[in-house]
Each structure stands twice: as structure tokens, then as C-alpha cells.
Amino acid sequence: MKIFIVKDYLELSTKAANIIKEEIEKKTNLILGLATGSTPEGTYKELIRMHKEEGLDFSKVSSFNLDEYLNISYSHPNSYHAFMDEKLFKYLNIDKNNVHIPDGNVKNVEEYCKDYDKLIDDSGGIDLQILGIGQNGHIAFNEPDDRLYLGTHVTNLTESTIKANSRFFSSIDEVPKKAITMGIGSIMKAKKILLLANGEKKAPVIKELLQGEMISTQNPASLLLLHPDVTIIVDEEAAKDYLSQKK
Ligand code: GLP
Questions:
Q1: In the 8-state DSSP scheme, what is residue 153?
Q2: What is the pLDDT of residue 35?
Q3: Whole-structure pTM value
Q4: What is the rounded CA–CA span in Å between residue 54 and residue 78?
Q5: Catalytic residue among 23, 81, 127, 136
Q6: What are the mean pLDDT values of the chain's consecutive 10-residue runs (247 residues total)?
Q7: Which of 68, 81, 117, 138 does the annotation list as catalytic?
Q8: pLDDT digit string (tens) for 81-107?
Q9: Residue 104: what are its φ and ψ, rounded to 5°?
Q10: 85 vs 193: CA distance, rounded Å
Q11: DSSP H/E element including 178
Q12: CA distances (Å), 112 to each of 66, 81, 85, 102, 116, in order?
């Protein structure tokens, strides 16, 4: 596991975007795994700048998003479809046919989830997976539990995640209670993983991750410790509990 502790969110975003850029330059038809949430927004901004000012080319890049709320319309401003469009896709020359985001409005959702994993496998698998992390250690929407699904599936969001995500909605009652999410197995199949975390709210969970001593399904992100190619970039605030126990 490569760990970078950087000064602030700006540095985190620039570093993450540079890693993504390098991978696209090495492989023009890169398959990216993309995340939503506030954490990658700065990285996406920097990728847009790189596209506009440096000609970073997304025309052959494909993407698979981690998750989407269940039964939310695509046009809802808080759907992950709308988020990705607003924060990234509409500014890039990415081919919309190569963009994949789980569809929370399908009829046969079980079959759809299996097909989503198959589509990823058939396309050659994710080359670089971007991840944020929830305060409770969730990655995508894999919430802490005794048992975790390997494949893409429908999941119930925990109270703490509903509360954390309510900042994007006008009231907590509006936050969807279920989501489609790639499973831990789908994520672990990615060739490279880049996990980002900023801000002091993430400090306790980041401490556990950076200590790297234990894995637990109660901290889904800890399972990444078993992956052979993970890079973690955190800002000083997110690393503060880890750094203070080291002193
Ligand atoms: C959301 C998403 C995750 C994201 C996490 C952290 O619920 N499903 O993919 O990583 O929560 O969000 P944020 O980056 O806003 O802290």
C-alpha cells in the first residue's frame, strides 16, 4: 500500500488527477472506476482543467461508476447520474456509450446487477478504481456488516450514511434508503485502486486503515489491505489521528 499524506484538499486533488492522467497516457483506452461524493470533486475539476488546457484525451476512456440510489430519477439533482454529468462528463470528450452508471430504475434489479459485473469483466476489467470512504468505513455503498456481498447488489443504507448524505438533500427524509452498489469483490478485481480522503471527520477511520493491522467486514475499507496495488492519498486533517498516535 502506497500512502501519501498531503497538506490539503487542493494538493490531494492535484496528486490524484496526476495519477489518473499518467494512467490514461499509458493506456488511452483505460477503464476507470469512478466514485461520487464530495471527495473526488476536486480531482474531477483538475481532470477537466487537464482536458481543456493540456489536451488530456478521454475519447477512448471507458468508465464504470460504483453506485446509484435506488428508484431515483436520473434528472434528480442528487442522483449519481446527474452528479457525474455535472461534475465531470459534460466537460470531457468521453464517449457517452463508454460511460456506465448503475441504473436504479430497472425492473429486474437482481439480473441487472449480475449483468453490470459481467459487463465490467467482459470489457477487460477496471484498470484504475477511484474510491472515497465513508466515516463508517463504507466504500461505494458497502456498509459495515457481518457479511459483505462480493458482486454488485442492492443494499440498505445505514442510518449514519443516510445522515451523512442528508447534507446534499433538503431534508433527511428525502435521502433514498436503498442503493445499487458494486460489491467488495467487484472493487477488489480492479487492477489498481486509488482511495482518497480529506477532512477531520474521516480521521478515525483513516487511522485504522493506515495502521494496516487488521481487516474487518465492520470496516469495509480495511479489506483493501488485501489488494496488491492500493494507493491512499489523505490530507493532514484526515491523517491527524494516525499521525498523533505515531508521535
Ligand atoms: C457516499 C458514496 C461513496 C463515497 C462516500 C463518502 O455515500 N456512496 O462512494 O465515497 O459516501 O462521501 P464523501 O466523499 O462525500 O465524504
A1: E
A2: 98
A3: 0.96
A4: 30
A5: 136
A6: 97 98 98 97 98 98 97 91 97 98 95 98 98 96 96 94 90 94 98 98 97 96 98 98 89
A7: 138
A8: 999 999 999 999 999 999 999 999 999
A9: -85, 5
A10: 22
A11: strand 178-181
A12: 14, 17, 22, 9, 6
pLDDT, one tens digit per residue, over 129-144 is: 999 999 999 999 999 9
Cα(215) to centroid(ligand 1), Å: 20
Q: Whose CA is nearest to atom 13 of ligand 1?
A: 37
Q: C-alpha distances in angstroms, 194 versus 55, 109, 126, 154, 231?
A: 23, 28, 12, 24, 5
Spatial distance between the Cα atoms of 142 and 125, rounded to a whole number of angstroms: 20
Residue type present at position 62: S
- Cα three-residue angle 191-74-21, rounded to 5 degrees: 30
Distance separating alpha carbons of residues 61 and 55, to the nearest angstrom = 14
Q: Which of 38, 83, 130, 138 gets mutated to test ligand 1 (max ligand atoms within 8 A of its CB)? A: 138
Spatial separation of the C-alpha atoms in residues 69 and 67, rounded to whole Å = 7
| Pure H helices in the chain | 9-26, 41-54, 80-87, 109-122, 159-165, 184-188, 203-211, 240-246
> What's the chain's Rg over C-alpha atoms?
17
**For residues 25 and 48, what is the distance between their CA atoms, to the nearest angstrom?**
15
What is the three-class DSSP state of 151? coil
Residues with CB under 6 A from ligand 1: 35-39, 66-67, 132-134, 140-141, 161, 165
Specify the pLDDT at position 55: 98
Task: Provide the pLDDT for residue 75.
Answer: 87
Q: Verify whether residue 71 is a known catalytic residue.
A: no
Query: How, if at all, do strands 31-34 and 62-65 pair?
Result: parallel
